[in-house]
Amino acid sequence: MKKLFLTAVTAIALAVAGGCSDQNGQQAAQASQGGQQPAPSVSVVTIASQQVEHTVTLPGRVSPMRQSQVRPQVEGVLTERLFEEGALVEKGQQLYQIDDARFAAQLASAKADLKSAQASLKTLEARSARYKDLLSRNAVSRQEYDDALAEAEQAEAQISVAQAAVDLAKVDLDYTKVYAPISGQISRSYVTVGSLVTASQEQQLATITQLNPVYVDMQQSGKGVLTLRKAMQQSGTLPVKLILDETTGEAYEHQGELKFSEVTVDETTGAVALRAELPNPDSLLMPGLFVKATVVLSNTDELLVPQRATTRQPDGSMVVMTVNASDKVEPRQITVSGAWQDQYMVKGGVQAGDRVIVTGYQKVQPGMQVNAKPWQAGNAQAKNGQ
C-alpha cells in the first residue's frame, strides 16, 4: 500500500511541474509577440544620371541609289550575250552583241561618199583657180568664174554632209555593242540570243542595280516631322539604324544617315517623305525590302526612375517612395518629362543619389524604418517570368 501511495504522489508532482512549465512557455511567447516588429525589407534603386538616346521609329522601304534598264539603240538580231546573269558588271562593259553586218556596210558606203565628195572638191577648186586666171585676161566672163567658185563651195558642203554620214554610221555600228551604262549587279537576261530587238521596244534587255549604298524611304506625319527637322538643323545629319526582323529583333550591322526630308506635306496622306542612305557592302539590303528604321534624334543625360516604382494619385500627380539616410521612408512627388524604355525621365522631385523603392513600397508608410536592399532588375524579371 505504501508503494502504491508513493507512486501516485510522484505522478501528481510530475503533472503539476509539467503544467507550470507549459504556462511559463506560453507567457514567454506572448511577451515576445508584444515586442517591436522587425523592419520590413524593400528593394531600392539609386537614382543616377544616365545617357538616353532619343529616337523615332518609322517603317521604311529599301530602294536602289541607281538602277538602269539596258535597252537596244539600233535594230538587229542578238548574236551574243557576254555576261553572267546576276554578276557584278562595270560601267562600259560590253553586255550584248547585235548583228553588225548591215551597219558595217552603211559605214563603208558613207566613207565612199566622203571620198567622192573630196575628189569633186579638188576638181572644182582647180577649175575655179583656172577661171580666176582667165578672168584676169578677160578670157572668161565674170559670171562663169562666179559659177565655178560657187560649185567649189558646194563641194565643200557636200564633204561636211558626207563626214556627218560617216560619223552617224560609226555611232550606229558602235551601238551594235550594248554596254553597261552603270556599275552594279545585273539581273537575268530578258531576251535570248537570236531574238530580234529594236530601238523602240518596251522590253528591256536586262536591269543593272547599284546596291552599295542604298536608300531607305520613309514616311512621317506632318507634325512629327517638325521634331526631325529641328534635330537636323541642330546636328546637320541624324544617324539611322535598321531592324531587319521585328520578331527576332535582328539589327542591321551598318549605320546610315538621314539625308533629307521633303519640303511639302502630301495632301492626300498628310505625311512627309524622308530618305536615309546606308552602306550595303554585302548586298544584304535588296530593293523593295521592308525594314523598320530608327532615327536617332539626340543623346541627353537624364535621371531615370523605373515605371514600376511610381504610383499615380487621384489628382494625376506621380509619387515615389524614397529611403533617406536614416533608412526611413519619405514620399516624393516627381515631375516626368517623358518615357524611355520601361523608365520615366524625371525633371523634378528627386535628384541623383536618392534611393527609390521599387518593390515593397505597398507595405510601408511614411516615416517607417525599413531594411533597404539593392534592386536587381534581372532577378525581378526572372521571378515575373516564373
Overall description:
The protein has 386 residues and is an alpha+beta fold. The chain is 32% helix and 37% strand. It has five helices and 20 strands. It has helices at 2-33, 101-136, 142-175, 224-235, 377-385; strands at 41-46, 49-70, 76-81, 88-89, 94-98, 177-179, 184-186, 196-197, 206-221, 238-245, 250-251, 256-261, 271-278, 290-306, 310-312, 318-323, 329-340, 343-348, 355-359, 371-374. Strand 16 and strand 17 (329-340) form a beta hairpin.
Order of helices and strands: HEEEEEHHEEEEHEEEEEEEEEEEH
**Major sheet description:** 6 strands, antiparallel, barrel
Estimate the mean pLDDT confidence.
79
What fraction of the residues are assigned to beta strands by DSSP? 35-45%
Total number of β-strand segments?
Answer: 20
Cα radius of gyration in angstroms: 47 Å
| Strand order across the largest sheet | 2-9-13-12-10-14
Helix content: 25-40%
What spatial form do the alpha-carbon principal axes imply?
Answer: elongated
Give me the number of helical elements. Answer: 5
Low-confidence sequence ranges: 1-35, 379-386
Query: In oligomeric terms, what are we looking at?
Result: single chain
Terminus-to-terminus distance: 72 Å
Structural class: alpha+beta
Short description:
The protein is an alpha+beta fold. Helices cover 32% and strands 37% of the residues.
List keywords for this structure.
single chain, 386 residues, alpha+beta, six-stranded antiparallel beta barrel, four-stranded antiparallel beta sheet, 5 helices, 20 strands, 32% helix, 37% strand, elongated, disordered N terminus, disordered C terminus
